[in-house]
Amino acid sequence: MKMTLNNSWKEILQPEFDKTYFKELTSFVISEYENHQCFPKKEAIFAAFNCCSFEDLKVVIIGQDPYHDQDQANGLCFSVKDGMKHPPSLKNIFKEIAADLGIEIPQSGNLKTWAKQGVLLLNATLTVRAHEAGSHQKKGWEIFTDEVIKKVSDEKENVVFLLWGKFAESKTKLINTDKHTLFIAPHPSPLGAWRGWFESKHFSKTNTFLEGIGEKPIEW
User: Fold this and answer.
1) Distance of CA 153 to the CA centre of its chain
2) 157-204 pLDDT, tens digit each
3) What is the mean pLDDT of the chain?
4) CA nearest 187: which of 67, 80, 62?
5) For residue 168, which of 5, 8, 163, 187 is within the disulfide window of CB 3.0 to 4.6 Å?
6) In whole angstroms, what is the distance from residue 193 CA to residue 207 CA?
7) What residues contact residue 114 under an 8 Å CB cut-off, 6+ apart?
8) 8 Å CB contact between 37 and 129
9) SS3 179
10) H-helix or E-strand spanning residue 129
11) Alpha-carbon distance values, 100 to 113, 159, 176, 202, 206 (Å)
């Protein structure tokens, strides 16, 4: 597994790379990519970090698993490659943005523009075998990404955490709520979006908070 990682993150996360669990995880991922089709492409496994430096980070969005169908995943949670059809959850994210901010739904589902503005689009599991949802869960990725959340919580201040659905909400225990802001809503999946995802206004709330502390708002 080629460890091409933004220098700001590499320094912070190096202790994790040296641990036994991460070495075992690396061996597993290398074997999976050699013997099976896996997503995202190897060079995009750490895209969430390479597109959003630690210094610039202002917002964290937590997903669960990469998309497992052909050419969808690009290493950023909820995001797909340019030209790909918007998956159902992303459609609902864009619908809420349009309603919340009064803007048009983007044509591209590639959320790299968010990441470049300081939004960490973090999946709990960073790889998956093609067409096998959850196939790389409980192999060590969750230990790693939980540590990422803890590092952000410990070493940053005034980060906005957008926690969508019960899984993301379960990460609250890793976050110092005295110095960070959390917005919680149901998952944007069609299965549960009707429970309160729509009209949650997380995007305007995030920008109002950022402007209130003198930070540039996100162009969603």
Assistant:
1) 15
2) 999 999 999 999 999 999 999 999 999 999 999 998 999 999 999 999
3) 96
4) 62
5) 163
6) 22
7) 76, 121, 218, 220
8) yes
9) coil
10) strand 128-129
11) 19, 21, 28, 8, 11
- Please identify which residue in the block is written with the tokens 């919340």: 100
Alpha-carbon gap, residue 55 to 17, rounded angstroms: 20
Residue 172 backbone dihedrals phi, psi, to 5 degrees:
-55, -35
Known catalytic residue at 65:
yes
pLDDT digits (tens, 9 = 90+) for 78-89: 999 999 999 999
Distance in angstroms (rounded) separating the CA atoms of residues 119 and 52: 6
Active-site hit among 18, 56, 65, 69:
65
Q: What is the pLDDT of residue 81?
A: 94
Cβ(118)–Cβ(8) below 8 Å: no
178 DSSP 8-state letter: T
Q: Is the dihedral of CA 108, 113, 219, 89 positive or negative?
A: positive
pTM confidence score: 0.96
Cα–Cα separations (whole angstroms), residue 51 to 65, 75, 174: 18, 10, 23
DSSP 198: T
Q: How many CB atoms lie within 10 A of CB 66?
A: 24
